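User: Need the bound-state model for flavin-adenine dinucleotide:
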Amino acid sequence: MDRRTFLAQTGRTLALTWTAAAAVSAEPAVAETQATAAAGSARQVIVLGAGLAGLAAAYELKKAGYAVAVIEARTRPGGRVLTYRDPFADGLYAEMGAEYVDATDEYDHRFCKELGLKVMTAKLYDAIFVRGQRFKMASFKQNKERLPYAGTEGGRLFGQEAAYLKRLLALIADPEKLPPEILKLDNLSVVELLLQEGAPDDVAALFTYTQATESTARPHEMSALHLVRSHRRSFSEDTDEGRILGGNDQLPKGLARALSGQILYRRPVRKIAHDGDGATVSFEEDGVLRTLRAPRLVVALPFKVLRDIEVTPSFSPAKTKCIATLAYGHVMKLAMQYQRRFWDEPTSLGQRVFTDTMLRRVYHFSIDQPGPRGILMSFTSGADAEALGRMSEAERLQAALQEATKIWPEAPRHFEGGAVKYWNEDPWIRGSYSFEGVGQARDYLQIAAAAEGRVHFAGEHTSVHRASMNGALESGVRVAAEVRKAEGA
Ligand SMILES: Cc1cc2nc3c(=O)[nH]c(=O)nc-3n(C[C@H](O)[C@H](O)[C@H](O)COP(=O)(O)OP(=O)(O)OC[C@H]3O[C@@H](n4cnc5c(N)ncnc54)[C@H](O)[C@@H]3O)c2cc1C
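Assistant: Bound-state model below.
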């Protein structure tokens, strides 16, 4: 009896006991697994990936009465939310992946509230170190000091490119209905657009350290359409950012706890086969390929890894192209432990410094923890992350210390060590997060999010709030509603 016949003959929904043991479903039949039939019980959904997107989807579906199984390659939940505690002394910890929760991040705040987690306020940039020049943010803003970049306005750091977008922005009457002149900007890169609109090279150079660093991309890789469309809600020196008090890992761990019996860890997915009745997922378990089938599948895997998973039959040509080519950047975080918090002393340039050094953004991370020790964090991306990525771990930390010394000359006296996470060498993402590359800002988001038959898609790359925890959670909630709607619930 094949699976379909079996299901038809039982005439009821088959609810698997989604425990690690029960999930073992070497072909040929569900009946051979430890699946238990439960009359009138929940419908089943398999979710791939226990990052925030997959966890939120599974959590919402479980609440709605579905039987869910989450298949995850790692031994922990959270994906790109990763809090390191062990490498540091005195109970210090550091966010090596996602860090900031903005005041406007609706889904972050909603899930934190649901799990009883508190969001604290982080500190804003208080200094700038670019082209060897040092600026205290307060006097920079007040006295309208100028950055050493031609074509920039005094007193502001982020958004210098806006002055060169005015002609194009005037063409937009309704942001929901962009005219053809604007849509065709998708064929240009940010650099090409800025130069075309009369910006000096320096404005594009500064953009590398402002928005492109946030996107973890290089300006010549980023779509000009993305820039024009998003510039009003871009990150700036005034963005109100927070963090989850005690560590961001509490968010995925809280969701995973609510799903613990349903998450299968250490099981990399290798194949997806789908048809009109459902999908079969093949995953590795201790070197053996096992399968699991359900009427619906949620794929919450980054496209950077999904492109290496065999899909039968292939998804639509548009989806296949999007999976194969969606742009991802380079990103590294370096957490440096120091014996003393010299950055808080009166002679210091500041405690959160915007730089054009290899460290890009460098800031006091341990603001919620008692001293005297503390952690300086660097978030670096693009070409600098790649260059550091070619070094050994010891060399990366040595380079970080050298760069920090340019800003705080006393740094070497207090340096004790640190930890590095280069996401491009992590096998389960091999990149940072998605961004809209040239040619990808018109329809890629819709294509990425669209269901393919009984296969649904979640993940930061499918959300308008891409590249964020908020976007990942939003996509999980969206996909759970999509599954329910497709099932007529
Ligand atoms: C360095 C860095 C800094 C960031 N900073 C911020 C920030 O300050 N604020 C913010 O909001 N966001 C930030 N982000 C972005 C945020 O982390 C992501 O947008 C979000 O966590 C993505 O969630 P996701 O569920 O879509 O993907 P992921 O977290 O990547 O989850 C996907 C899951 O799928 C699993 N997986 C992969 N391949 C397989 C396979 N073959 N089989 C089974 N499982 C597999 C992975 O192990 C992972 O658990 C940052 C990200 C990075 C890397």
